[in-house]
Prior knowledge:
single chain; five-stranded parallel beta sheet
Amino acid sequence: MSRLQEAIAxxxxxxxxxxxxxxxxxxxxxxxxxxxxxxxxVASNGMDALALARDNNYDxxxxxxxxxxxxxxxxxxxxxxxxxxxxxxxxxGAWLDERVMARIRSVTNGFFPKPIDSSKLMPxxxxxxxxxxxxxxxxxxNEAFLEQM
Length: 149
């Protein structure tokens, strides 16, 4: 295992997948549990996601945009308030205008269209996690260097 892979495994332990479609939740739970090192939990709506996030320390959340109750944007804002360093990815099968996409980009770390193709999602998720791990590793290297001075 490379140093980067070790860092990713160290930084990221829990993932929350949020979607109101039971079939998508079930399939993505199996895919994410088998293809990632994460402990994966699922929620059927934004309010349930926030309740889970109050009781658990999630590193990553993947949430649908259109859900009953609060939408994915409000869910993302709530998740970010609970866990400021959480990586949040939004999904949607609906056509979204540029105004909505700009809002999504302002509160998430990425967007992935539905239907979710796991062969494309996994590399994208890996890229986002790698960038974050490198950022954290660089920060720690900078702190260690400053401590030596």
